[in-house]
Amino acid sequence: MSENGSSKKQRKTSKGYKPTREESALDVSSEPRERIALRMTVSLRRDPQVAVRHRCLTHTGLLANLVLTSLNLGDGQNLGTANGKIALDCSVRRTRQGHYCISTTDFFFPLVDSPYLQGRIGAANVLSDLYAEGVGECDFVLMLLAACRDMTEDDRNICTREMVRGFNDACLEAGTTVTGGQTVLNPWPVIGGVATTICSDGEFVKSDGAQVGDVVVLTKPLGTQVAVNVHEWRVRGTPKWKELTNRSILSREEAEDMMHAAVCSMSRLNRHGGGLMVKHHAHAGTDVTGFGLVGHAQNLMDNQAAEVGMELHTLPCIANTVKVEQSGVFDFRLLKGYSAETSGGLMICMKEDDARRYCEELELLDGEKAWIIGRVIADPDRKARIVEGIKILEVGLS
Amino acid sequence: MSENGSSKKQRKTSKGYKPTREESALDVSSEPRERIALRMTVSLRRDPQVAVRHRCLTHTGLLANLVLTSLNLGDGQNLGTANGKIALDCSVRRTRQGHYCISTTDFFFPLVDSPYLQGRIGAANVLSDLYAEGVGECDFVLMLLAACRDMTEDDRNICTREMVRGFNDACLEAGTTVTGGQTVLNPWPVIGGVATTICSDGEFVKSDGAQVGDVVVLTKPLGTQVAVNVHEWRVRGTPKWKELTNRSILSREEAEDMMHAAVCSMSRLNRHGGGLMVKHHAHAGTDVTGFGLVGHAQNLMDNQAAEVGMELHTLPCIANTVKVEQSGVFDFRLLKGYSAETSGGLMICMKEDDARRYCEELELLDGEKAWIIGRVIADPDRKARIVEGIKILEVGLS
């Protein structure tokens, strides 16, 4: 995976931070205390109702729609949105001084066992909304933090410290700084933040400019939800994991690779992807997170000034997530484009020539591929959809 | 309490929103479903470990110190702080365009049973940090929201909607607007937000300019923690409540008045208090919340450019909170100045003449008193303390 060897616990490369395979698998220590402290999601598993968490997203998606729509929040002055109301990824406001204040907030419950990586992933995810606006630089970050009430004090201190360290390291790698925040105790640990940048005309990309004939770029593969859940099944030795192995669908090594690829992807910053959008004349962008590829594609289409829709013809997926999905052990809706992603890639509408140059330059900077996965078409119904005979790309560890 | 009569459920006066006595006491309906939905803190009480919540503040205060200090967050470029690191109430950053971006975030678990009022109080509390910087106008707000996992779907929808409505109404009253945010499901409901303003030189007050000879102004009375807890004791019929009544320390009506005064105070915006600071040449300010009066006074002194300390000679307290404290039923540390406040007043250092004019003008705008409660002295130890023979003011409902 890297020229530096896998024995080093944490490394920086010119491409930015990459966790080691051991970090992703969490076989990092045989020392019980550290091990317990590192197993963050254990705090969630203790909770008998934790299964509910997996349904949170749909619920809160519906809830947010209900609440935001019915209360008619906002003042119609949000920029880069179709109706001027609540924004797509960020709040984009014209300041009294004539500039633009672009701001976003997001916070997360653990989905990996390493608090350090959870902190990294949380920061990458918060910053990603800003990058989706074609911004490469974040001016400052506020940190949202909940320490886990149900841990021993020692575990809580270690876990919280490691989460913050991961969050802070990712912010430093992004060239920004944590300047404040809030800390509470909660049954479930939380890490997240607020990312803000103030910029001038021409320094960001409004999210509403997609044109017929544009292609659609995606900068990270799909499948993080599949990988994280298979990892949980494996670690907990659940019936689903036993079914996967008994039917020889997936080996332990493949599951570890899959989790490692997901963790590498989730902790990678979309900074370069965002920073290159203005240069390559991007028309509109968003990032792929909880609603899945098609969910976010639809949000993006709903937000366009022109009457456009999106046809998706290619699904780049983390290696082996597709065969897990096809096994029928669990329906993540990955191939329908609705599997939730965490800290997913940017999805950008731009001219085809621009897109090719964008992908080339981004691969040089990130050391990771980006793909043209669809095209923008004229469509009064503004529909985003996957075409028949979709092409699936299996994306292995780079 | 008001010239409009108490039968109207929600009112706006020229002084801003004030809850009715019924709203504060929550005897708002005999209809079971609405009643359940309105009893937000029930969701916390169900939790066997909820008692831990009362100790959260100390824990997270210590934790935040541990984490923030040990990780050396920030880049030394925060303005208005002694060391340029993590800010007192807000992150204050000079923008690339030469202005100032003042930003703060805060989120809360329910401490009143009405989700609407909890939303109001949450917004007032978030905005207060901005007002403590001498800013009267908030440019925009992002909303942080967690719907309660442990409610029925109906209750959850009603509660969440009401929280958001209260939050949004308070933002509208503050002349600002909700432009984005984040919604999740959590064992405990959460409401909070991010308040941001971009301003120019001379439009805000740096928090580090207190001078020897300044007096200290406080814009809301103390005792919200006492009132909220006594209310819980009464509603739950706990031994502490029985002790208070058996010993004839407090009547039911006094407890209701106390809670009502606390709810009125917590849901009142500090907007006018913040907006008048520049006009009246305030030198430094903060707001009084979780660390109590003396805790925040100490934070403020630790943050001053000059070697100054603070002597507090007057404690304005919500009526009857003092006799509850003195009864010995529970030690809130109110008279020591460490009782936690929620959405408390601004504490401002300014010249005595300015302070008198500030208090007069503020009373005209808010219809509520502000007090001179202490003075700034030369002190190389930078100590904030309560003087011997402190004067206690009992503040009744206005």
From TrEMBL, chains A, B:
Cellular compartments per GO CC: cytoplasm
Stretches assigned to the PurM-like C-terminal domain: 211-384
Kinase recorded as keyword: yes
InterPro entries for the chain: PurM-like_C_dom, PurM-like_C_sf, PurM-like_N, PurM-like_N_sf, SPS/SelD
Region annotation (Disordered) ranges: 1-30
Any Pfam family hit: AIRS
Keywords from the UniProt entry: ATP-binding, Kinase, Nucleotide-binding, Selenium, Transferase
Transmembrane stretches, start-end: none
Domain PurM-like N-terminal span(s) in chain numbering: 89-196
UniProt record, GO biological process: selenocysteine biosynthetic process
Bias kind Basic and acidic residues: ranges: 19-30
MF GO annotations: ATP binding; selenide, water dikinase activity
Protein name: PurM-like C-terminal domain-containing protein
Organism: Thalassiosira oceanica (Marine diatom)
